[in-house]
Specification:
- InterPro entries: Ig-like_fold (IPR013783), Plexin (IPR031148).
- The chain is elongated and about 50 Å long.
- It has one helix at about 5, and strands spanning about 15, 20-25, 35, 55, 75.
- The chain contains 1 helix and 5 strands.
- It has a 3-stranded antiparallel sheet. The chain has a two-stranded antiparallel sheet with strand order 4-5.
Length: about 80
């Protein structure tokens, strides 16, 4: 399951970015918690806009078998500190 699927589910699920898992029991999350949009608890980190994701302006096409260096911008990655 992905973060966006988790936090937009019909249930009060939350996403644990460091564990890469969806849960109803946030005490199993080691650090940051992204609360689901249907979670009744108030949270500053709530909803799909806080999910880790790639920021792609356009589709990246790469030929098969040809080494190519690319740069992809990401957002909302959990810190490792």
């Amino acid at each position: 399951m992905k973060c966006t699927s988790c936090v937009t589910s019909s249930w009060a699920c939350s996403w644990c970015p460091h564990e890469n898992k969806c849960t109803h029991n946030v005490t199993t999350c080691s650090r940051t918690v992204i609360s689901g949009e249907n979670n009744p608890q108030n949270s500053l980190i709530k909803g799909r806009q806080h999910c880790p994701s790639f920021k792609l302006e356009e589709e990246i096409l790469l030929p098969s078998g040809v080494p190519k260096e690319i740069t992809i911008e990401v957002r909302n990655l959990p810190s490792v500190v």
